[in-house]
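ESCALATION

Customer reports they have been waiting on this structure for their group meeting. Please prioritize. Original submission:
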Amino acid sequence: MAGARRRSQSGDAFLDDKGEPVAVAVRGANGRSTLVASVDVLDRALAELKAGNGAPVAARSSEDDDPRLCPDPTPEPKTTTSQNSIAYQEYAALVFLGVTRTPWAASAECPHCGSLDGPACGIEVAEPWTGALDEVESLERVEVFYWLHLARRDLIGQSPGRNGTTKATFTIRSPVRPNRIGTSIVSLVERRGPTLIVCGLDCVDGTPLLDRKPDRSEFARR
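Update from on-call: job pushed to the front of the queue and completed.
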């Protein structure tokens, strides 16, 4: 899909055959890169795959050229009913709000659990979400949710201690999960524009950010 590569201050931009950017590789302080792709590009690629398989493709409208901050999943999520007659969607779409900046370049280097007296790390919030950081300086601790993009997601049981004992995935805090959602309680050191300096993260540098909220115990005191 990408026909060329162009270097810029923010990273390497990958271009399609028409010279339009389709993805950017954003480099971290330790040299690792995170590939950020346009949702619209991914939608078009999926439509092209459907067309190649003979599946019907929806007609393109002028609205397709408008940026979408929270895009609907493509194709439409299938809704089914459980044995308890509870309707649910089989999958959902997520929007990455930024990236984390940590000292760890590989999963094996990450601590098993973040510590509030650990090294200072960064949470870089991308536009248009920087406005959602207003008054964040009033918080002491923050709960951070992130997407563990390097983790497997197909294990029912694991041996995290590698001691021959297998534990069920839902009973441990291993990053290997069906949905790669990680969470940490961090202390907020300071805000530097769109970046929060925090202590307590335990993930690889460049891990995509999903959300952040006030720590539940701190929020309950308000």
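Sent to customer with the following note: The chain has a mean pLDDT of 75.
Escalation resolved.
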